[in-house]
Design a protein that fits this description.
By secondary structure, this protein is of the alpha/beta class. 46% of the residues lie in helices and 21% in strands. The strands form three sheets. Strands 1-2-9-6-5-3-4 form a seven-stranded mixed beta sheet, sandwiched between helices. Strands 7-8 form a two-stranded antiparallel sheet. A two-stranded antiparallel ribbon has the order 10-11. It binds nicotinamide-adenine-dinucleotide.
Length: 350
């Protein structure tokens, strides 16, 4: 088992290993003690792993409630959030009781937001079950829900007490959902370079524990330096401005990871054409996405993408912050004028 400690305002451990679910109680007991626990999970994950977790906690002496919602992004709404708050209140969850998110990024974001706001904050544990949730969303403390006007528009920063990543739980993931998470893994490899990049050209499953550990360390490093996204944490948005536009333009038929893959490949081509990185670096980045079954191009035009980005919440006034790739392990923030954005993106569309 690997442990990464995240040194935010309230430090916490991320434990990574094979089969951690079965021994979860030994790690959870200092947090849940003898109190009540609400497991939050979706209707695909709960039947696979929820009853096991509930059984273990019940045997430990905890009172366990399960809040189960329909799987998918369409559940990350104010309605589900309020239903969860009411569920916690109706089951008389107290300020010392614990919410456990067992699932992907949707579950973690939703459960974390409810845990942060119910009684102004009760203990919260993440048990991520997708690659994306393990390497990205469960670390860093961003929680929230979507509004009609856009994704993740309501939320708070709220750090979990503990994150338990059982690598084995990913064996039941659909291939496309796993590939979605690989997009964030490749993004981290571009930001950090080094060992992670080398692991990505080898078979993934035997190295998965190590891959998750390196990703969590990279994300933790960025988050620790900038917990509330005032500066360098924005590097994690590499490829996201174009990615979000592709996601939005497709009516969310292009999944987040696939859209980010396209977004990063566009930026790699832009950077190569502007002489910011070498053509060889851009080619290597694009090849990595292909190797892991992710798209590298889009049919949307530069005009479509620029117009959509204008409405992006990350845009500040008439300028836009992009992440420039100089090389693996060397990325920088670059502010560009909104007027320059469309011609830049055109360079990346081939
Ligand atoms: N908080 C953050 O910092 C942050 C960062 C990145 C993304 N996110 C959010 O994460 C969400 C996407 O996360 P996701 O891709 O994990 O989506 P998800 O939670 O919807 O999971 C994807 C699908 O996989 C299924 N699933 C999950 N674990 C499984 C398992 N072990 N076996 C079989 N099926 C399983 C789910 O039921 C769902 O159908 C988005 O809402 C995004 O905004 C948050």
């Amino acid at each position: 088992m690997e442990t990464v400690t995240v040194h935010t305002s309230k430090p916490y451990d991320v434990l990574i290993g094979e089969g951690l679910l079965q021994s979860a109680v030994s790690y959870l007991s200092p947090i849940v003690k003898g109190g009540a626990v609400t497991i939050v999970s979706d209707d695909r994950v709960y039947p696979l792993y929820g009853e096991t977790l509930k059984g273990l906690l019940t045997a430990h002496g905890n009172t366990v409630h399960s809040f189960i919602f329909p799987n998918g992004e369409h559940s990350k709404t104010a309605d589900t959030y309020v239903a969860l708050l009411n569920f916690l209140a109706e089951h008389t969850m107290a300020r010392t009781d614990t919410v456990i998110a067992l699932g992907g990024g949707v579950t973690g974001d939703l459960a974390g937001f409810a845990a942060a706001t119910y009684m102004r904050g009760i203990p919260f544990v993440q048990m991520p079950t997708t690659l994306l949730a393990m390497v990205d969303s469960s670390v860093g403390g961003k929680t929230g829900i979507d509004l009609k006007a856009g994704k993740n528009l309501a939320g708070v920063f709220y750090q979990p007490r503990l994150v338990l990543c059982d690598i084995r739980l990913m064996d039941t993931l659909e291939k496309s959902v796993f590939a979605d998470g690989m997009a964030e893994v490749i993004k981290h490899a571009i930001l950090a370079g080094g060992e992670l990049k080398n692991l990505l050209v080898q078979p993934v499953r035997p190295n998965l524990e190590q891959i998750v550990k390196l990703n969590v360390s990279i994300k933790a490093g960025v988050v620790e330096a900038d917990e509330r996204e005032a500066g360098n944490r924005k590097l994690l948005n590499l490829g996201h401005t174009v990615g979000h536009a592709v996601e939005t333009l497709s009516g969310y038929r292009v999944a987040h990871g696939q859209a980010i893959a396209v977004g990063i490949c566009v930026m790699a081509r832009v950077c190569a054409k502007k002489g910011v990185c070498s053509q060889a670096t851009a080619d290597e980045i694009i090849a990595l996405f292909r190797l892991h079954g992710l798209p590298t191009e889009t049919g949307f035009t530069a005009r479509d993408i620029a117009d959509t980005a204008k409405m992006d919440k990350k845009r500040q006034s008439d300028r836009i912050t992009l992440v420039w790739i100089e090389d693996f392990g060397r990325c920088v923030l670059k502010d560009v004028d909104m007027d320059e954005y469309e011609p830049l993106i055109r360079l990346g569309l081939r």
